[in-house]
Amino acid sequence: MAETASQGQGATLFSPYKMGKFNLSHRVVLAPMTRCRALNRIPQPALAEYYAQRSTPGGFLISEGTMVSPTAQGFPHVPGIYTEEQVEAWKQVVDAVHAKGSIIFCQLWHVGRASHQIYQPGGASPISSTSKPISGRWRILLPDGSYGAYPEPRALNAYEIPEVVEHYCQAAINAIRAGFDGIEIHGAHGYLIDQFLKDGINDRTDEYGGSVANRCKFLIQVVQAVAKAIGAEHVAVRISPAIDHLDAMDSDPLSLGLGVVDRLNKLQKDLGSKLTYLHVTQPRYTAYGQTESGRPGSEEEEAHLMKTLRKAYQGTFMCSGGFTRELGMEAVAQGDADLVSYGRLFISNPDLVIRFKTNASLNKYNRKTFYTQHPVIGYTDYPFLSNPLSRL
Ligand SMILES: Cc1cc2nc3c(=O)[nH]c(=O)nc-3n(C[C@H](O)[C@H](O)[C@H](O)COP(=O)(O)O)c2cc1C
Fold first, then answer.
1. Residues 6 or more apart in contact with residue 139 via CB below 8 angstroms
2. Phi/psi of residue 378, nearest 5 degrees
3. Model pLDDT, residue 5
4. What is the rounded distance in angstroms from the CA atom of residue 208 to the CA atom of residue 196?
5. Fewer Cβ in 10 A, N or C end of the chain?
6. Pocket of ligand 1 contains residue 323 by CB under 6 Å
7. What does the pLDDT look like over 269-312, one tens digit per residue?
8. What pLDDT, on the 0 to 100 scale, is given for residue 285?
9. Measured in angstroms, how far is the CA atom of residue 300 from the centroid of ligand 1?
């Protein structure tokens, strides 16, 4: 919760915030977003331009989901951080962001069963907590731009899990070597870690399945290992207990969310250091591309879930999902969040922070170019405010 006057009562999106060791000048965060412009899994110069456009002095950016290993891919042309070439390429992106005075974390991602043989080394089956495929309600974007069915995954054996944890760990070390200020572990939106967390997916009978404690085990092992490798103050976690994207349903999202929070609190105590933040996506976010993917819950239920997790978590709390300028202002003013991450509005408004500050009008985003590969169109060609005075 709040630590200083500027962090609590009376705060706005434009109040400074001390996020662990990082001094932020405002609370409008770039949400992690897959944009499919990293040709052959390597960050390109276009990424440096895109992230630099969205940087502000004392601002905070989270990178797109970045593959921790060759089996982690589930979209075309997403970047990895497991080879030297990728690390070198990321350095250019991070340097461009730092030159503009922003702080940037790398989001570490493994899609688990949300993949396809076409993305897997040797055409193998994707790995998961389960051997149940994602239902026909969802389709996977293939490299040629068409959509296909998700295939049957292979459930990981318990003895294979430490190796996957090690991949997160090495990726985190690589991210720091590339110059990132920290990493965010993607435990949300139906991807690998969420496939362990949710009881609608995880059907294991070993120590990684069943109780909330068992389902949290993989996430906590990843957090523990990564925190040991790069320091807890450089590690953040993202979860989405109430979002059923890619069939990631849980019968009791609140208990699951609190289960994760309790374990993170305990881990922080054991480590004697806080994580950088906890990032929670709320169901108001109706997914990109589809019109509906949020759990059909009432606004009150959603608000209750977010407030409860916020109160329970002992550290910086970031929320995401369907926030406008007004909703973000409200969340910060009421103490419901320390930071707010913005996705779609940041795609189409590279200068979103200044636009929010001056209450200027916003460019509309074009969904059709969210996941295309052109290095400029729909990526770095959204206009800035034309009046330079309003950029002050
Ligand atoms: C094109 C696109 C790609 C996204 N990719 C990711 C991702 O890689 N990792 C992630 O955690 N969330 C991802 N998200 C979710 C966003 O981080 C964010 O939570 C979501 O867009 C809701 O915020 P908004 O309503 O401000 O857009 C993506 C969203 C969009 C629109």
1. 147, 148, 149, 150
2. 75, 10
3. 38
4. 7
5. C
6. yes
7. 999 999 999 999 998 754 333 334 344 557 788 889 999 999 99
8. 58
9. 23
Paired tokens of 46: 């276009």
Q: What is the pLDDT of residues 318-354, one digit of tens each?
A: 999 999 999 999 999 999 999 999 999 999 999 999 9
Tokens, residue 216: 């949290």
Ligand 1 lined by 33 (C-beta under 6 Å): yes
| Catalytic residue status for 150 | no
Q: Could you tell me which of 38, 51, 43, 31 has the C-alpha nearest to residue 380?
A: 51
pLDDT of 8 reads 58
Is the CB of 378 inside a 6 Å radius of any atom of ligand 1? no
CA dihedral over 302, 303, 306, 308, signed as positive or negative: negative
Q: Is any ligand 1 atom within 6 A of the Cβ of residue 245?
A: no
> What is the Cα–Cα distance from 13 to 34, expressed in whole angstroms?
25
Looking at the DSSP bridge assignments, the partners of residue 17 are 24
Return the residue whose CA atom lies nearest to atom 24 of ligand 1. 343
Backbone dihedral angles phi then psi of residue 318, each to the nearest 5 degrees: -115, 135
At 60-79, the pLDDT tens digits run: 999 999 999 999 999 999 99
Q: What is the 3-state secondary structure (H, E, C) of 72-140?
A: CCCCCCCCECCCHHHHHHHHHHHHHHHHCCCEEEEEEECCCCCCCHHHCHHHCCCEECCCCCCCCCCCE
Q: Whose CA is nearest to atom 14 of ligand 1?
A: 33
Atom of ligand 1 nearest to the CA of 281: 19
Beta bridge partners of 187: 239
Predicted pLDDT at 297: 59
**Ligand 1 geometric centre to CA of 30 (Å):** 10
Q: Kindly state the helix (H) or strand (E) to which residue 380 belongs, with its residue range.
A: none
- Tokens 């060759």 -> residue: 70
Which of 109, 288, 326 best tests ligand 1's pocket when mutated (most atoms within 8 Å of CB)? 288
Distance of CA 365 to the CA centre of its chain: 20
Residue numbers of the chain with a pLDDT score lower than 70: 1-9, 285-297, 387-392
pTM score of the predicted model: 0.95
